[in-house]
Amino acid sequence: MLRAMLAAASSSVDRGPRVWGICGGTGSGKSTLVALLEAALPLGAVSVLHFDAYYRDMAHLPATTRAGLNFDHPDSLEAGLLADQIDALLAGRSVQMPVYDFSTHARLPRTDRVEPSGLIIVEGILIFAFPELRARFSHSVFLDVPEQVRLERRIARDMVARGRTEESVRRQFAATVGPMHREFVQPTAALASQVVAYGTDFDDVVAGLVVRLAAMNKGALPTP
Fold first, then answer.
1. Mean pLDDT throughout 147-171?
2. Mean pLDDT, to the nearest integer, of 188-197?
3. Which of the four pLDDT bands, split at 50, 70 and 90, describes residue 200?
4. In the chain, where are the structural domains located?
5. Which residue of 73, 95, 209, 218 lies most exposed, with the fewest beta carbons within 10 A?
6. Range with the lowest mean pLDDT among 7-11, 30-34, 56-60, 157-161?
7. Contacts of 197 (CB under 8 A, 6+ apart)
8. Which of the four CATH numbers 3.40.50.2300, 3.65.10.10, 3.40.190.10, 3.40.50.300 does domain 16-216 have?
9. pLDDT at residue 14 tops 60
């Protein structure tokens, strides 16, 4: 219904690419929100870059050393590479997004090709911690979810998707995930254009974002 209401626009409308950032702690619902937003927009109208793909490659280190690293600190991510790939998409060029193996803490030889589009969404836990990324966002959303909820979701995800034990997830959360969230993630909520409180209906959030996007494009939804 939203698509039908908002799709009509003059050919003279400025439909230059937009970059949006969606941030929040682990288990806050970033991936779910991105998927819902993609589904609400025309097919091929959205390019998505996941900051989780840009963890630094630790293949050169022994496995025991990798396992002890703090992957929740901003230094563990290549923000410069992500910024360069955002710029390439804005310039109309496709990019090769890295593929990261969380079980080995190393990048895989293959990459995922991402094509340019009218809306570039960047999602990740620490995207607002880097000024060079924030400067590229025309709109930014922070998902504010209580720690206990995020921990429970993290346990459920990591036990299934990453083959971890509940004990190991809790241990990492207490050692690095929680402290790094409080130091580097939660404070950036103040930098967001929009803060979504826990319990807010994501359908309402998506509807509002679609309307906002059309307004930014002077009435038009982005096209592939």
1. 92
2. 98
3. very high
4. 16-216
5. 218
6. 7-11
7. 144
8. 3.40.50.300
9. no
Nearest to 34 by CA among 113, 95, 112, 122: 122
Decide: 113 and 96 in contact? Cβ < 8 Å: yes
List beta partners, residue 77: 55
Tokens of 4: 């039908």
Kindly report the pTM of this predicted structure.
Answer: 0.88
In order of 68, 82, 86, 113, 161, the CA distances from 99 in angstroms are: 21, 13, 16, 10, 15
| Positive or negative: CA dihedral 127, 72, 33, 45 | positive
Length of the chain: 224
Euclidean distance between CA atoms 142 and 212, whole angstroms:
16
Supply the DSSP string of the chain, one letter for each residue: -HHHHH----TTS----EEEEEEESTTSSHHHHHHHHHHHS-TT-EEEEEGGGGBPP-TTS-HHHHHTS-TTSGGGB-HHHHHHHHHHHHTT--EEEEEEETTTTEEEEEEEEE---SEEEEEESSGGG-HHHHTT-SEEEEEE--HHHHHHHHHHHHHHHS---HHHHHHHIIIIIHHHIIIIIGGGGGG-SEEEETT--HHHHHHHHHHHHHHHTTT-----
Is the dihedral angle over the CA atoms 84, 66, 168, 130 positive or is it negative?
A: negative
Instruction: Please give the Cα distance from 202 to 170 (Å, whole number).
Output: 27
